[in-house]
Amino acid sequence: MASAIDDPTPALHPSTAGLRSDTIAVDLPDDAARSSLPPPPPKNAFASVTPGKPPQRKGFFSRPRVVFTLLIVFSVLSFTAISLGVSFLLLSPKNPKLSISKIMVTHPWAKHPLVLISVKAQNPNNRLGVYYRTGGIAALSFKNKTVATGPFPAFFQEKKGSRAVDLVLRAANKTMPLQVRNSILNTTTKLPLSLDLTMNVPVRMKIWTTKIWIEELVFDCKLKVNTLSNSSRIIKQRCPVIAEPQ
Q1: Cβ atoms within 10 A of the Cβ of 61, count?
Q2: By three-state DSSP, how is residue 172 classified?
Q3: What residues pair up with 238 in beta bridges, in sequence order?
Q4: For residues 69 and 185, which has the higher predicted lDDT (pLDDT)?
């Protein structure tokens, strides 16, 4: 009994007696050591580096400089178009005039005789030039049957100008009407004929240095000749425009 009372060693708690050998001692830093540690980062420290949604690009037409440039271009084009339209109306453009000066047939015995027609082109406009563009077609017919066809030449005509144009039309003896062929070959007796010469002519008017109004004019020439032999002469004619710009 005496030895148990005199023992200065305190008794261990029953729940920790078996864990004594596995316990690890950890030295906690004192207040001085804690003060030397760096402070923790703020809560929003990583907000600036956190990848977010990419910025949306503005559309092409949402840029002020582009819109301003487009407005200037549109204004200039509109002003130019209006100015040309007003000038065109004030100048009152007139259709060119065509008339037949001479008609004759060469190589009448050939498989494809040639019909040579001299046309006089007149520009009645005082301030407008006329461009006769490529692609024009001329056709000579007798009683609604085609006799010869060929191109209408391209050229430019100054204001109040007059010019002679030569048409070379190609015929075919095989399909040529008998009356036309007799008029060509008969050199002793003149056999008058009534013919139609249709000319589809694409033209363009020119105001100062600007070309405007491209359209195809259709001239329908009604002519009567005394003969189609070498001594051919035009008795009467009329060449109205039957199709023009609306």
Answers
A1: 8
A2: coil
A3: 222
A4: 185
